[in-house]
Amino acid sequence: MDAVLPVTVISILLGALIAVIVFGNYFRKRRSEVQSIATSEVLHANQKPSKPPQPASKKSHSKPHTHAADKDANKRHHPLDVNTLKGHSDSVTGLCFSSDGHSLATACGDGIVRVFKLDDASSKSFKFLRINLPAGCHPMAVAFSDDSSSLVVATHNLSGSSLYMYGEEKPKAVGETKQQPKLPLPEIKWEHHKVHDKRAILTLVGTTATYGSADGSTILASSSEGTDIILWHGKTGKNLGNVDTNQLKNNMATISPNGRFIAAAAFTADVKVWEVVYSKDGSVKEVLRVMQLKGHKSAVTWLCFAPDSEKIITASKDGSIRIWNINVRYHLDEDPKTLKVFPIPLHDSSGTTLQYDRLSISPDGRILAATHGSTLQWLCAETGQVLDTADKAHDGDITDIAWAPRTIPIGDKQALVLATASVDKKVKLWKAPPNPS
């Protein structure tokens, strides 16, 4: 009995110890579970106030709106950038202002010619007339004929170049109504095909013939990528004469504002000039070669006439701009004179002079606009000084430029406006920089 008692006591003590250990582990486990649940609830409770950031996330959704607003502001990245005409779905290949400056025609690679009404160059939207060309025709250039309701379009396809003159039929008066009649759609008044054989038309320029006995008709000059230039009567489409530069290929050709001279920049450094001779009845009698501008050391890339038709401005690959006086007695063998020579003030990063692709002079004769690739410059025509530069005027190469022939409204002001077209599917309007003193 005495030996059994200690064993029993030891067993009870061991059992109690085991029970304490087991129950201690159980209670510690339960406590940790309770603490974890409490911690989870506290964290969950603390997360509820963090939901207010949701409005912040909503604000983040408004960022695209803010970004869009910034993007709209950045579109006019240059102080002279007034507006952008959108809606073209392909490269814009040519443009032209009407004689009153209130209509701007654009030729687009999508086969559509658009005529925008520029009542205010700063407007947010513009009304425009849409002209769908015949299937397969790719417009290369446009020129107004007579007025803003008549338009000549130069096109090209596999069979060659064509000219189409679109005009509006005046609505027949049916009686006076309060409602304004809809403008009639333009229709083809005349057309010519294979006008330069299978060669593409490079330039098409029109003007009102006012020199000498000219009758005030619109005449147009088209030049091909070959060597030929053709003179056309705007209203009738009659061929008024052909000339040939005989210089391997043409770069471009244009006609003086008064309709007296035709000048061409071609493969060589010389510029050839022809005179349009008018009969007493105002019609074109003949086209005669009368002078040659010699002085550049390399090919002339572009030229334009001064508004008075007595001077020509040329840009050459030799890195210079020349202003020529062509108001000379050429019939007495008097040669045209170089009035001024300016270095082209445009250089690449290495300092190499870049050539100008296009030139256009303002209607007051004071500002010369010039382009190279996507760069646009304004120069003082008197001194050659750079007035302003837009390094990336477009997102691609500039294809055409033209000044409005007179000031047009920009908001509540009037200003000289330059239009530029590009492969980036846009047409931009720019106000002229301040006139040099």
Keywords:
single chain, 437 residues, alpha+beta, Methylamine Dehydrogenase, Chain H, four-stranded antiparallel β-sheet, 31 strands, 44% strand, WD40_repeat_dom_sf, Anaphase-promoting complex subunit 4 WD40 domain-containing protein, repeat, transmembrane
Task: Report on the architecture of this protein.
This protein is α+β, with helices and mostly antiparallel strands and 437 residues long. The chain has two domains: 1-46; 79-170 and 182-431, 7 Propeller (Methylamine Dehydrogenase, Chain H), CATH 2.130.10. The chain is 15% helix and 44% strand. The protein has three helices and 31 strands. The chain has helices spanning 4-47, 53-61, 63-75; strands at residues 81-85, 92-97, 103-108, 112-117, 128-132, 138-145, 147-157, 160-168, 186-193, 195-198, 201-208, 218-224, 228-233, 239-244, 250-255, 261-266, 271-278, 284-293, 300-305, 311-316, 320-325, 337-343, 358-361, 367-372, 375-380, 386-390, 398-403, 408-410, 413-415, 417-422, 427-431. The strands form eight sheets. The protein has a four-stranded antiparallel sheet with strand order 1-31-30-27, with no helix packed on it. Strand 30 and strand 31 form a beta hairpin. The radius of gyration is 37 Å and the shape is elongated.
Helicity level: 10-25%
Share of β-strand residues: 35-45%
CATH superfamily of the largest domain: YVTN repeat-like/Quinoprotein amine dehydrogenase
Q: What is the architecture of the largest domain at the second tier of CATH?
A: 7 Propeller
Number of separate structural domains = 2
The CATH class of the largest domain, by name, is Mainly Beta
